[in-house]
Amino acid sequence: MKKLLLISSAFIFSFGINNANAQSTNPPFYNDIQNFKKQDSINPPPQHAVLFVGSSSFTKWTDVQNYFPNVKIINRGFGGSILPDVIRYANDIIIPYHPKQVVIYCGDNDLAASDTVTAEMVVARAKQLFQMVRNKLPDANIAYVSIKPSPSRARLLAKDEAANNAIKSYLATQKNTAFIDVYHAMLTGSGQPISEIFLSDSLHMNAKGYQIWQKIINPVLLK
Fold first, then answer.
1. Are 185 and 210 contacting, i.e. CB atoms less than 8 angstroms apart?
2. CB 3.0 to 4.6 Å from 163: which of 8, 93, 119, 132, for a disulfide?
3. 133 and 87 in contact (C-beta within 8 Å)?
4. pLDDT score at 14
5. Rounded CA gap, 112 and 64, in Å?
6. DSSP labels, the chain
7. pTM of the full predicted structure?
8. Quick one: what percent of the chain has pLDDT higher than 70?
9. CATH, range 45-220
10. CA distances from 153 to 16, 90, 95, 114, 182 (A)
11. Domain boundaries along the sequence of the chain
12. pLDDT tops 50 at residue 81
């Protein structure tokens, strides 16, 4: 009996380790995506809506629907995601909704992740995401919100602007697209980020920052 208990305990311990290892091998933001899927199963979002997808500037815009009351919006911003994360989960949180418009905000965290990440790398990632969405949703409008200037990442302003300019030029060669320039509206006259529109972390925006985005994004959204 004692031997049996020891074997059972060993099995349970081993199962626990294997289960923990399985969880640890999940890709970044796996749990966030599963939570989205759970939400969708309980309360299916509307088809042919406007989809906001990308990183935490969208995640933290929890009341985004209030800013655009005449537009049906699905917000699928997640964590501190980078463009490869959005690409990884596109078949989970972009394609299934069949949105009439996909509004992307991402690239900010890519540049901040490492000094080795260049503006050219971000542009290549943005193009990859664009082509993936375009191939799966050929009729959807695709809008890209420019990388914003943040006080805590002021060292990256030159890279931000280079990436923004290249993405804008690329989208200009594609049909049914829009480049939404929030970058310049968030700068002072001396070319520095406006500190008053950010939270205490100097990275994420407060309501004043989102009001700037509202004015610039609203004309581009498909009603």
1. no
2. 119
3. no
4. 45
5. 25
6. -HHHHHHHHHHHHHHHHHHHHHHHTSPTTHHHHHHHHHHHHHSPPPTT-EEEEESHHHHT-TTHHHH-TTS-EEEEE-TT--HHHHHHTHHHHTGGG--SEEEEE-SHHHHHH-TT--HHHHHHHHHHHHHHHHHH-TT-EEEEEPPPP-GGGGGGHHHHHHHHHHHHHHHTTSSSEEEE--TGGGB-TTSSB-GGGB-TTSSSB-HHHHHHHHHHHGGGS--
7. 0.89
8. 89
9. 3.40.50.1110
10. 41, 27, 32, 12, 16
11. 1-31, 45-220
12. yes
The amino acid at residue 213 is W
Structure tokens at 123: 């542009």
The token pair that represents 73 in the structure block: 């919006």
Sheet holding 101-105, edge to edge: 73-77, 50-54, 101-105, 141-145, 177-180
Q: Which tokens sit at 98?
A: 């069949």
What are the two backbone dihedrals, phi and then psi, of residue 75, each rounded to the nearest 5 degrees? -105, 115
